[in-house]
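FIELD: query
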Amino acid sequence: MAMQIHESAEDYLEAILALSEKGMVRSIDVANHLGYTKPSVSRAMSLLRENGYVNMDAVGLLSLTPSGMEIASRIYERHKLLTRWLMHLGVSEQAAAADACKIEHDLSMESFQALRNHILEDLGEGAD
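FIELD: result
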């Protein structure tokens, strides 16, 4: 059985996904992205690998497993949507991203879906 995913693990998985959109990802990239120390990230990557969320190849490149991708995608979608909405409301990009990061982990799926529908409507995009 995989470990319970905590907010910090979600942050690591989300960072790998976000960074992978720009290219290959190494632990140092995750450390720089999150502002964490290399030893902290190395320990977290070890735990995430042991629990089946992350793979690391022979040259140290990180990739998400299907279960890691599922979690990362959910959190990253929340982050991007909440950031866009807060910016739409007039919040600066930096504050919007920081606040979205605080909100994204604790919101229930039901509340997120309701917010998502409202936000997309508010942004003139309509819900899927």
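FIELD: remark
Strands lie at 54-56, 62-64.
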